Amino acid sequence: MNSNVNLINAGKYLNRICADMSVSKLYYYDIQYTLSTTILEYRLKHNLTSKDMASYLEVSPSMLSNYESGDYDFSLSQICDICEKLNLKLNLSIAEN
Question: Taking 80 as the threshold, does the pLDDT of residue 76 lie above it?
């Protein structure tokens, strides 16, 4: 068995992938990641099953799976509803460059 494995530098790899993305797309993915991980972390922190969390958010378990995997395009209204249900404060900052 060959133990010489060449690992790529993840940061350099991501920089190459993101180099051609628009700033708006990068913002989108950053927000999407934050939402998905926040929902998942909340569920795990509170020892909730996927079924219980889905019921609490009033969505199907498959929809919750989409939320947590980042495979969902949230509306602003849905983001506000989720934050209210999870007792989370939503901070949004918009400023000129």
Answer: yes
- DSSP code for 72: S
Mean pLDDT of the chain: 88
| Phi, psi dihedrals of residue 96, rounded to the nearest 5° | -70, 150
Q: Which residues contact 7 (CB under 8 A, 6 or more apart)?
A: none
Residue type at position 38? T
Burial status of residue 68 (CB atoms within 10 A of its CB: 0-12, 13-18, 19 or more): buried
pLDDT-based confidence at residue 7 (cuts at 50, 70, 90): low
Per the listing, tokens 């010489």 go with 4
CA atoms of 86 and 42, how far apart (whole Å): 8
* Residues 6+ away with beta carbon under 8 Å from 94: none
Q: Is the pLDDT of residue 71 over 80?
A: yes
HSE-CB at 25 with a 13 A cutoff on CA atoms is 6
